[in-house]
């Protein structure tokens, strides 16, 4: 998950440097979404992993 977030972030930075504002905005939004989903899944896995013996 974090790898996809970083990939989208790099795409957003490259697109911003080249002047593609629409692509940069979309890639940045996707990077934020994937990163937040990854963090949420990580936190859920921490709580569910502690309940098992």
UniProtKB/TrEMBL annotation:
- Keywords linked to the UniProt accession: Cell membrane, Membrane, Transmembrane, Transmembrane helix
Per the record, the coiled-coil ranges are none
Does the record's keyword annotation contain Transcription? no
GO CC, one annotated term: plasma membrane
Judging by the UniProt lineage, the source's domain of life is Bacteria
Q: Where are the transmembrane segments?
A: 7-24, 30-49
UniProt xrefs under Pfam families: DUF1328
Protein's UniProt keywords contain Oxidoreductase:
no
Query: Entry's HAMAP family?
Result: UPF0391
Tell me the protein family, please: Belongs to the UPF0391 family.
Q: What is this protein called?
A: UPF0391 membrane protein B6S08_00270
| Source organism per UniProt | Oceanimonas doudoroffii
